[in-house]
Write a structure and sequence with these properties.
single chain, disordered C terminus, alpha+beta, 20% strand, six-stranded antiparallel sheet
Length: 280
């Protein structure tokens, strides 16, 4: 069994949290996670797992709870039988209100939660989440912790407007054009994006762009149509970027070219992942 379900945050946390994901497996499994254009906080409440970069390097060794910044490529999870994890999927600007460091420091990085907050607080959180009787209890304990960690309004109105503009354009927008529309220099916009989002406007846009492509994969569109809709002028460039961000070629994920898609997914996605073809 592989269980995956998303849950909505309480109203007080909705400005910061997109949703929560519960992921459980009762057999050993390997799966990729595609890069999100936002941070993820994970709490392992049973079992064990390892996280590797696309280059095979270990991340967040000894993980029981931690934060993963915006990533430039896919990451691979190796999960032991009986593993369960709660993922807190931040909004693009939400992590800045809770994490006590400049977000750009975690670009392409992950760190354990006790490197960010007092060890005693983190140990208590892990114990309460692991001891909760059900998913509702795990989310309740997590939200109690998150509400205590909010530093105050951290919403940068200009960055927020930039994020929304990029999302409306599905990532097909140049950083220079965005800066001009927001009446700010590209350099100043980049600095504010890195602080509040954890990546440059260009990188954020590229992740929004590939996420838009992934949403269209189940539709059955052709490779040419996917590339065109994403603003690519040639297929080789599109295939290169697709493989970089997902670990697979587009044809491996297109539903009409394979019986079962490989098990890659984005935490927070409403789409149920299909990892059953990748047991280890």
């Amino acid at each position: 069994m592989f269980f995956y379900k998303v849950f909505q945050p309480s109203p007080a946390l909705q400005p910061y949290i997109y949703n929560y994901s519960i992921v459980e497996n009762n057999y050993a499994v390997m799966h990729n996670i595609m890069p999100r254009a936002a941070f993820i906080l994970g709490i392992l409440y049973k079992g064990s797992m390892e996280l590797e970069t696309s280059g095979g390097q270990s991340m967040a060794a000894g993980f029981t709870s931690g934060v993963m910044g915006i990533q430039d490529a896919y990451r691979t999870f190796y999960k032991a039988p009986g593993t369960g994890m709660l993922a807190v999927n931040f909004t693009p600007t939400g992590a800045a209100a809770l994490l006590p460091l400049p977000l750009q420091e975690l670009f392409n990085q992950a760190c354990t939660l006790d490197n960010l907050f007092k060890r005693q607080l983190v140990a208590g959180l892990e114990e309460r989440v692991a001891g909760a009787k059900d998913t509702a209890g795990r989310i309740r304990e997590t939200e109690s912790f998150l509400l205590q960690m909010i530093k105050g309004p951290q919403q940068d109105p200009l960055v927020y407007a930039g994020v929304k503009a990029i999302q409306r354009a599905k990532g097909i927008i140049k950083a220079e054009e965005l800066a001009k529309a927001l009446f700010i220099s590209p350099g100043r916009l980049e600095k504010r994006f890195k602080k509040t989002v954890g990546a440059t406007p260009k990188k954020f846009a590229s992740l929004v762009r590939i996420a838009a492509v992934l949403k269209e994969v189940p539709s059955g569109k052709s490779l040419t149509a996917l590339a065109y809709d994403a603003g690519y002028f040639d297929q080789p460039h599109f295939i290169h970027d697709f493989r970089h961000y997902t670990g697979y070629s587009p044809k491996q994920l297109l539903p009409h070219t394979c019986g079962q898609p490989p098990c890659g997914f984005v935490y927070g996605s409403a789409t149920i992942p299909l990892p059953v073809n990748n047991p280890v």
